[in-house]
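User: Fold both of these, please.

Assistant: Here is the first one.
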Amino acid sequence: MQSYGLVYGEETLVNALQSATYYYLNTLTSVAACIEIADQRDPQSMVAEVIKHLPKDAQWATLQGPHQLSIVVTRKNKLVLAILLADKPTDIPRDWLDSLYNGDELSPEQINGLLEQQPDDAFLLGKVVCSCFGVRENTIKQAIAEGNNTVAGLGKALKCGTNCGSCKTELASLIESTSAVSKPHLKEETTNEYAL
C-alpha cells in the first residue's frame, strides 16, 4: 500500500518532516509551508517516523483509520502543523488550510474537519455576504444559477439584502459575475443558412 497527502504549517516543522518521507514536493501557499507527499508505506506505517518530528511543546490531535492518518498540532488553539495522509490521492483545498492557519484559534469543529480531511460547511459555502441572515457566497451563486438574477429575487429566495441592505451592492456584483460566466456563447445565425 502507499500514502499520499500533505504536510502543512510552520516552515521549520514542515522542513523537519521532509526526511520522514520518501518523495515530497514543495508547493506554494500564501501563508504557510506545504509539501505534498507520496510514500511507499501505508499511512499507519509512517506513524513512528512522523511522530518523532512533532514538537513537544504543542498539543496533538490524531485520527488513524485503515485508509488515512491525520495529525493536527496546535499551540494555544492555533494551527501550527497538519499532516494529512491517505492511501489514495486526495484534493485538500489549500485555501481552506490557509484560512485555518490565519485564524486566531481553531474551533473543535475545525479540528475535527482537519482530522477527517474534510473542509467545514462554512468554507464550502464561501464567505458571508449577508451578515444579517448569514447567507454565504456559494448559496447566493446557486440561487442565481436557479434563476434568481435580481437583488429582489435573491431577497425573496434567501432573505439576503432585505434587512439593513448593506450587501445589495455585493449581491448585484455576484449577479453580474455569475451571469456572465454562465451565459453560453451562442453562434450567430446568418439568414442565408436557412434560405430556400
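And the second sequence with its predicted structure:
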Amino acid sequence: MPRRIWGKVAGCRYGRQAMTAGVLLAVASVMLLSVISALQQGAAPLPPVAAPVSEAVPLPEAAATANLPEPVNTGSIQEAATAPTIPEAAVAEDNSAANEAIQALWRGGITHAFGWQLHPLYGDWRYHNGVDIGGGEGQIVPALLSGEVVDVYTDKTYGLTVAVRSGKYTVYYSSLASAAVQKNAMLKPGTPIGSMGICGGEPEPHLHLAVKTNDGQKTVNPQELFPDIPARALQQN
C-alpha cells in the first residue's frame, strides 16, 4: 500500500517538486552544520571578563599623610641661611650685663623722693616730679626699659635730659653730665644713656628719674614702674 501511495506522489508533477525541495533542504542543513562546526573549532577564545572595579576606600587622614614630607617654606630657609646665628651664651651675657648695669644704679638708693618734699638746699617745700638716685659723678646711666629716644635737651631745673618713650610711658633721665644717645635711637635695657652729673639746685651727683604718660598729662611715681629701687632716708644738710 505505501509503495502505491509513494508511486502516485512521485508520478505527480507536484510530488517531484516536493522531493527536490526536500533534498535541497537536507543538503543545505548539512552544509550549515558543517560551517557552524568549522567556526566553533577555529574561533579564538573570548578574553576573560574583568571583574568590576570597586570604588577606592579612602585612607584615614593620619595614614594618608604619615609618610608625606612637611611643606617647605622657602622664605624661612633663605632667612635661616642669611641671618646670623647668635649663640645662647652671648644672649645670656648681654642680659647679665644689662642687669648688672641697672643693679649698679639701684645701689645708689633714693636720695630725694617723689612728690612734695622739703628741699635739702633751700629748706622750703617743693614738688619733686621724680626721684633722685645717688651715685658718683661720671657713673654710667643705663636705659631701664626698651624704647625710642624722643628728645635730648637741657631742662632749666633738672639739667641735661634724655627722654625715652617706653610703651605707654615716657621716662626722663636728667641731671646728666653727658648724653651718649641721639634722638630717634632705639634702646634696650642696659644701653648706656649718658653719665651721671649734677644740676644747679642739687649739687650732689645723682640721676633725676621721672616718668610721665605719653600725652604728658600725668606724672607717675617712678617707684610704681620700678619697684626695685631701694629707698633710703633723705640726706639732711
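The chain is about 30% helix and 30% strand.
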